[in-house]
């Protein structure tokens, strides 16, 4: 499908907030979302009042950054890092410069995407253009910027990379919840051989995919029509899922970087690195390999299970009680489908692990069908059951049991009697109507029928 | 030996012979009588000061322990944040800005029972060497119009000399008896120059010794807060209070809290191990461009001191001194332009008159509220840190700084101290040197090396030429702040006739 002439090349700059209690250069907290109002989570330092200086740097934030760099496999860790001042006039910056470090680490790769470098910086405040309100509650929260090489080849590839990055961050516990606006990205995108466009203001993992998809087709269409994309910075409009060209800048971008005289260079020692390295948890890729070897999980199952630590851990506990392959298949398939449908993380159902284990036990004991199991899961997620036991719930709701052939036959007779037109159509050669009748059987059985058996019996019965 | 003025006041208060309130009142009277001529204060805190003095008196009367600065009246340069008081930096930009917090040094003054009397004028954002660049008014050097009894004699307009800068009013206030001690800041000589010009003692600590938390920035990698006092003892006492680590200024990570002056403070044993003779380097470059009368006065004073103390004077050469001014100013411009970036008219200080597009609005409010010298520095600093010019200017200046530093470190390997004039010339009259900034910059040639190198340096008065005082500068090894002030005290006492 893809015209090699229209190959897209993408590089990402991803900003994640590091999981720390306090800001990078003062002692204000990082829970700015829960602040009582604008500028309630501030102090003289993070509002850059005249005379204030950055406090001693939040050493824990820096350690979190190192953890992430090591987990990404960065092979070049710099032994000295300097904080720099990046100057620009914009109301979101209390001092009109942002503190941003020189690269902490370089090299490394994830999901086939090589990492250029990672560095630490201060989150700016927020400026609401509509109301004119400037809020510094967020200003100074520690951010890690991860810069990739321009090697991503499609929006889908970018999504895979981000998914895996998110998993790594989740495993490390080093970043704040990545879906609540604490992850932002800028993307550079070009059609090979054509001008590069920068897309800014992408504020979620999902947004990256949407922005890149839009921008890829926009640029491809231009190139196909013999137009050259303008070298520019575009803004992602998340509400409309499109990118918009920004007004032309009046001057060239020149941030006049200088080392921040107020912050001493940060030394990174070998001892510090090996200490952090030794304490790294088993990372997603490693866990996937282990799940395949230890539990016989398929590639897809291992991937789905391991993209969220809570789910991977739950699987391992469940697999001690239930057949591992059955559990892997159910969790990757039915469970994941229902979670995705609701945009839930596994953590949302994690407290119901006992219930889910019970459900899987019933399934493996053939006490419920797949269909019924999914139905019970849906009820669980939609809060229709307060029961902590799947078996109890199934019993109370009369969902227990798989119908025997004799029970089935009488239901099938009823379904045939209820659908004379479909039966006639089938007999006239329209085989599709069989599915319609089978659906009716499933409904009558309240999902307790084994779908394979229904198909088989129905076919025999109608071919008579 | 004559007792230090600061020490005798301290003793009198602690013993109850002088109440803090009475001490304060004598200062207030002088301010009320003479500050209309000297123009040192931007704001006075008399009411707050009176109640603070009463509290100290109550403590003393009740026999409770009091702090090291009990009852001493301190005035502070108005680049230091005092909670709920104006922090103007002598700029229209911050004319009505009220600080929401106390600087670290102010907290320490309060903790040691000092009485803070008010805030002092200076050059705008500390950019200047003669205090004429305040956006409000020029402070006048009091040396030429007080008679020996401390009363003001008639002053002809033509006799108005600059007090030096940028902390001109800090030195003036001490010289005029408006306070016992003053806090000032020194980025390229801003404590030592006015101390020399006003005939008082001033000291710039080793970089990183005193927390700058609460000090408005001029050039962050150069500046320190330091004491101005009538004598070296006063400097040492105030230094012992304000020095030390502070997590709110990470450049103080290696700070050493300087000890309070003890019994051996003004004797040789304090400044070097007694087994070794103190070696004092006298760089020939410090005398080459100096006014011959100033050079002679300093050499004579050093000769007398060496005779009395037995210290060894060695002539040395530090050729890199000539790179001091260019390296210093280029880096100061760069850091200053960065520091001033925050004054955009939105958050604090002067407000824009109309809300236009962002860039023109910021530009208008800055144009209207920042003075000429500051603008010059911001524009040059912006220019030399742009991508295009950075390598030719900024990066080169960093190299020059390292070069100067290496030569000073080398000299201080061979000598315990370096001594020379503080200023190459005597104070000039207000209005002179106003047109040519370069001429003014050159006056800093002997003070900037200590800032480029982060070394402790102080100025003690060593002679008078007519009414005008001459300052002698002592530069010590990095971290040897106590030893440096101690040597200043020894020189001071050797010169008492």
**Uncertain residue ranges of chain B:** none
Assembly annotation? heterodimer
Shape of chain B: globular
Task: Report how far apart the termini of chain A are.
Answer: 47 Å
The total of helices of chain A stands at 15
Largest sheet of chain B: 11 strands, mixed
CATH class label of the domain at 5-273 and 457-494 in chain B: Alpha Beta
Structural class of chain A: alpha+beta
Query: Which class of secondary structure composition applies to the elements of chain B?
Result: alpha/beta
What is the helix fraction of residues of chain A, given as a range? Answer: 40-55%
Largest sheet: number of strands, sense, barrel closure of chain A? 10 strands, mixed
Tell me how many strands of chain B there are: 12
Per CATH, the superfamily of the domain at 5-273 and 457-494 in chain B is Amidase signature (AS) domain
Please report the distance between the alpha carbons of the first and last residues of chain B: 11 Å
Notes on the protein architecture:
The complex is a heterodimer of chains A (464) and B (497). Chain A is an alpha+beta fold. Chain A folds into three domains: 4-277, no CATH class; 284-396, no CATH class; 405-463, Arc Repressor Mutant, subunit A (Orthogonal Bundle). Chain A contains 15 helices and 17 strands. In chain A, strands 1, 2, 6, 7, 8, 11, 12, 13, 14 and 15 form a ten-stranded mixed β-sheet that branches. Chain A has a three-stranded antiparallel β-sheet with strand order 5-4-16, with no helix packed on it. A two-stranded antiparallel sheet of chain A has the order 3-17. The longest helix of chain A is centred in the middle third of the chain and has 20 residues, at 205-224. Chain A is elongated, with a radius of gyration of 28 Å. The model of chain A has no long low-confidence stretch (mean pLDDT 91). Chain B is α/β, with parallel strands linked by helices and 497 residues long. Chain B has a domain at 5-273 and 457-494: Amidase signature (AS) domain (Amidase signature (AS) enzymes, Alpha-Beta Complex), CATH 3.90.1300.10. Chain B contains 16 helices and twelve strands. Chain B has helices at residues 5-14, 20-38, 46-61, 104-111, 168-175, 192-198, 232-242, 285-288, 292-309, 321-340, 358-369, 372-384, 387-414, 437-442, 448-453, 481-494; strands at 41-44, 73-77, 115-120, 181-186, 201-204, 224-229, 279-283, 312-316, 417-421, 430-433, 457-465, 468-475. Chain B has an eleven-stranded mixed β-sheet with strand order 1-3-2-4-6-5-11-12-9-7-8, with helices on both faces. The mean pLDDT of chain B is 93. Classes of the chains: A alpha+beta (464), B alpha/beta (497). Chains A and B meet through loops of A and α10, α11 and α13 of B.
